[in-house]
Amino acid sequence: MTQPDELSEKNIRVLLVEDDEDDFVLTKSLLSTRDNANIKLDWVSDFNSALEHVYQNTYDVYLVDYRLGERTGIELIQEAFNTGFKTPMILLTGQDDLEVDYSALKLGAADYLVKGRIDAQLLGRSIRYAMRQAHTVGELAEKENRYRSLFERSIDAIFITDRNFEFQEINPSMVNLTGYTSEELRSMSVRDLFDKPEVYDLLRQQIDGPVHVKDTEVVLVSKDQKKIDCLLSVVAIPDKAGVTNWFQTIVRDVTQQKKAQRDLLIAEKLSMTGQIARSIAHEVRNPLTNLHLALEQLREELPPEDPGLSLYINIIRRNAERIGQLITEMLNSSKPRDLELTPYSLNEAVKETLHLVHDRLQLKGMKLITDFTTDDSEVRLDKEQFKTALLNILINAVEAMKEMTGVLTVKTISLGDRAIMVCVEDNGTGISEQNRQRLFDPFFTGKQGGMGLGLTTTQNIINSHRGSIEVESQEGMGTTFRLIFPK
């Protein structure tokens, strides 16, 4: 199509669709003036021929008569634009009919001219105006398509909301991130996606105030209840009067980055624990061996009939053995696990582990609720190592609950084709946020007489399976452990 800045130099190809030859001759004479010298007119007299030219799209402007035998110019315009036709079309009619005018413009006609009121200047100006308008609309459409493409193809999740923060536009990455369809999201509040609603409330205050929201760390919850670490930025979109009616929010998923950071920190802690354990083992085990030998020698030389001496020797022996056991546990909790991975049903592995705490639950009058996924639960597991890790969590849950009122809930949940989750919930005393953050630290324990290596060992085993472990807890409300294994 001819560009607007070329209208005064380039030829403009115009097709007249008119069933009256006299009107063609009249129109041709109007376009033969000096001012319209660069407008070249062709003519067809029937609807079907005109439609063929429309499909070929070889003209810059189409002049369409309202009366075309049994058909009308309105029908031609409608049929053309229904196929995605963009070239400007001007409707010509023999009488000034406001209803026809509205119909033509509503369908997309560039202009509406009444025969008998047209002169050379008006016709030429209308043709050039229609081309300029079509070019401007085309540029706008191109820009809109470009920005729409950026919106649709963005790796980051993007959504647009109104002033009440109700979803208006949602890109595919947002759908993929949350697991909800666009229709489901539009029926929800943005607040429903936040793990902690109070964080959303604080953000709303910042958005409504002078504080700019950029790369704020938040945790969203997907449809399958998976927590997603995100960086969230919100931009206000004002209208021409400066009034903000829309907000654009960009959500960047940093879950894998955060996991990598946590894994690195865990590896550093385990490495430090291993160094400490090896140092202690080296410095303590030799004198400990000598202590055992000396005790055995002393036992042989002391009178066997003295009960007091035997009591003290046994105390020394038991504590020496306990020290040796603690050193072994420290070494085992920190060193990488050598796994024997084989395909195994996670459901069956969980059931076997639950059997090991069955008696504890019965003795304390606690209730067990289970819910196992019916989807394929096979993963690559070192079954015995997994049972050790899960048993640590189950025992902690039982010890955190009160007798006769404790309820232990164990579920396996399929996370699609990518992973499967074991969820352990208790209604025990819960864990403070400060302690929750230190839960897997070596030597941290809330138990009297405990070493604080059980959950360190558990985490080490889960990580060796390329899995992850999450903990959610609230004091007085119980604790939930989530173990996630890749399929």
From TrEMBL:
Q: Which PROSITE patterns match?
A: HIS_KIN (PS50109), PAC (PS50113), PAS (PS50112), RESPONSE_REGULATORY (PS50110)
Its UniProt entry gives the catalysed reaction(s) as: ATP + protein L-histidine = ADP + protein N-phospho-L-histidine
The keyword Nucleotide-binding belongs to this UniProt entry's keyword annotation: yes
Q: Which UniProt keywords apply?
A: ATP-binding, Kinase, Nucleotide-binding, Phosphoprotein, Transferase, Two-component regulatory system
In this chain the PAC domain maps to 214-266
**Which SUPFAM superfamilies does this one have?**
ATPase domain of HSP90 chaperone/DNA topoisomerase II/histidine kinase, CheY-like, Homodimeric domain of signal transducing histidine kinase, PYP-like sensor domain (PAS domain)
Q: Where are the 4-aspartylphosphate modifications? A: D65
Q: Which residues form the Response regulatory domain?
A: 13-130
One Pfam family, short name please? HisKA
On the tree of life, the source organism's domain of life is Bacteria
> PAS domain spans which residues?
143-214
Instruction: Return the EC number.
Output: 2.7.13.3
Q: Which residues cross the membrane?
A: none
Could you tell me which InterPro entries the record lists for this protein?
CheY-like_superfamily, HATPase_C_sf, HATPase_dom, His_kinase_dom, HisK_dim/P_dom, HisK_dim/P_sf, PAS, PAS-assoc_C
The Histidine kinase domain, residue ranges: 279-487
Question: Does this UniProt record's set of keywords contain rRNA-binding?
Answer: no
Name of the protein this chain belongs to:
histidine kinase
To which species is this protein native? Larkinella insperata
